[in-house]
Write a structure and sequence with these properties.
Radius of gyration: 22 Å
Pfam families: MFS_1 (PF07690)
Strand order of the largest sheet: 1-2
Subcellular location: Cell membrane
CATH superfamily: MFS general substrate transporter like domains
Order of helices and strands: EHHHHHHHHHHHHHHHHE
Helix content: over 70%
Largest sheet: 2 strands, parallel
Number of strands: 2
Keywords: Membrane, Transmembrane, Transmembrane helix, Transport
Main location: membrane
Shape: globular
Strand content: under 5%
Number of domains: 1
Distance between the termini: 35 Å
Structural class: mainly alpha
Protein name: Major facilitator superfamily permease
CATH class: Mainly Alpha
């Protein structure tokens, strides 16, 4: 067993560096939001049966479950200064693939494969899988670099910036179809084809992903292995040692598991929001289930607006949560999730598109808490050893609930009458369970006290 090294402590970083560490997250989140907000619309437009949507929504979390631990494991052992360092080479790889796939996915109905054909469904499913694989590869470095480079004192601020940029990207991506339609871009197409408003949204999102990712790659300088080891109080060989992922899970701090329990309920609920929102809004507000109708496509645009409302609410609420003292973190976390549960359940009862703004504002409050507290609590409880691998494994607390929710939907959806609105009542109950489970969390910190006058890193 290796001896612990004297720990210098991570230095304070200039705010500009923290912003640059996170800046590319804006583009990555745009890719995720376009996928989550338009995926149901795309699949139903090309002929997917609502009963079968769960199959397609299994693919993204399955991809994340496999890829993110691997990115963490291998990036812990990577040092390629010409490509950016430790985490940034994976950001470059993920961005390149994501951009290609973002140009392919919205054209799933334009290749002459046939409406509701197996070929069209398979093409769309494969492109979604690759989009999520690449987006996960591009996303994970941002989470890891905060763990690598930001001390406990600044970590809440850093994740707050990440949440702000994430939600800003989500707002932009969500409103693209609505705004493009407003400026005259076609929002309907012939049966089986995805409207041009959606296609252009993906193309614009791909361009922004390239620009924001390159900003992070060129402006961030990761710590070399010697400096990383000194700041984290480990030896340079610690991240090289071959430790199995199951062994690491056995050694994970208790906070890792209690936060995972909360995450299960939260991400289970959100999987149903992404799967059934378009259909539920079309049924309740526009009174249609015809995917080729103007009403269904209008519902898709309005869901984009509501997703933007959710993200704006999350940005505002993140600032509220940041003002709470540490002793009130759990109350803020649980209260936010409880408000989100009300928002989910209310979608079942609402038949006005304007009132849905209130519902999705409450959902956004829960989203803010989900993007503020979990990573802060977990990274504070971890030492610098195997940071990337642990964060990749923690991503399972996001992916597994979505997989379980999708598989469960094949039983639950028919039991609830085959109505997409009914799934929101269930999601509200599950989110409420998440709020209650917050009180099982006990926050801990693995970071040693900093030396006096910790330098500010240039």
């Amino acid at each position: 067993m290796k001896n612990e090294q004297p720990k210098a402590g991570l230095p304070n970083l200039k705010p500009s560096i923290i912003w640059m560490i996170n800046f590319g997250f804006l583009g990555v989140q745009m890719a995720f939001t376009l996928q989550s907000s338009q995926m149901s619309r795309i699949f139903q437009t090309i002929g997917a049966n609502p009963n079968d949507l769960g199959w397609f929504f299994i693919l993204p979390p399955l991809a994340g479950l496999i890829v993110q631990p691997l990115v963490g494991y291998f990036s812990d052992r990577t040092w390629a200064p010409k490509l950016g360092g430790r985490r940034l080479p994976y950001l470059l790889l993920g961005t390149i693939v994501a951009v290609i796939v973002m140009c392919l996915l919205p054209n799933s109905g334009s290749l002459g494969l046939g409406y509701a054909s197996m070929a069209a469904m398979c093409f769309a499913a494969i492109t979604v899988a690759f989009l999520d694989l690449s987006s996960n590869v591009a996303m994970q470095p941002f989470k890891m670099m905060i763990g690598d480079m930001v001390n406990d004192k600044q970590k809440s601020y850093a994740y707050g910036i990440q949440s702000f940029l994430s939600n800003t990207g989500a707002v932009l991506a969500a409103v693209f179809p609505f705004v493009l339609t407003f400026f005259g871009v076609a929002n309907t197409a012939h049966k089986g084809d995805v409207p041009m408003s959606v296609k252009l949204s993906f193309y614009i999102g791909a361009a922004i992903l390239i620009v924001t990712s390159l900003f992070t790659v060129f402006r961030v300088h990761e710590y070399d292995p010697q400096t990383y080891a000194k700041y984290h109080g480990i030896s340079e060989e610690d991240n090289e040692e071959k430790v199995g992922m199951f062994t690491l899970l056995k050694k994970a701090p208790k906070a890792f598991w209690t936060v995972t329990l909360v995450q299960f309920f939260c991400w289970f609920a959100f999987q149903y929001l992404w799967t059934y929102s378009n259909g539920a809004i079309a049924a309740n507000v526009w009174h249609t289930t015809n995917t080729a109708s103007a009403g269904f496509q209008a519902a898709g645009n309005w869901y984009g607006v509501l997703a933007a409302v959710q993200s704006i609410a999350a940005v505002i609420w993140s600032y509220v949560l940041a003002k709470l003292p540490n002793k009130m973190h759990k109350l803020g976390y649980a209260g936010s999730l409880a408000l989100g549960a009300i928002g989910f359940g209310s979608v079942f009862f609402v038949h006005s598109k304007m009132v849905l703004i209130v519902s999705f504002t409450l959902v956004g409050i829960a989203w803010a808490a989900m993007n503020t507290y979990p990573l802060t609590i977990v990274t504070n409880a971890l030492s610098g050893k195997h940071m990337g691998t642990y964060l990749g494994l923690f991503n399972g607390s996001i992916c597994l609930p979505q997989i379980v929710a999708s598989l469960a939907s094949f039983v639950i959806f028919p039991l609830l009458g085959g109505k997409q609105t009914n799934m929101f009542l269930l999601a509200g109950i599950v989110m409420l369970l998440g709020a209650v489970s917050v009180f099982a969390i006990k926050e801990t910190s693995a970071e040693a006290p900093e030396e006096p006058h910790t330098p500010i890193e240039e």
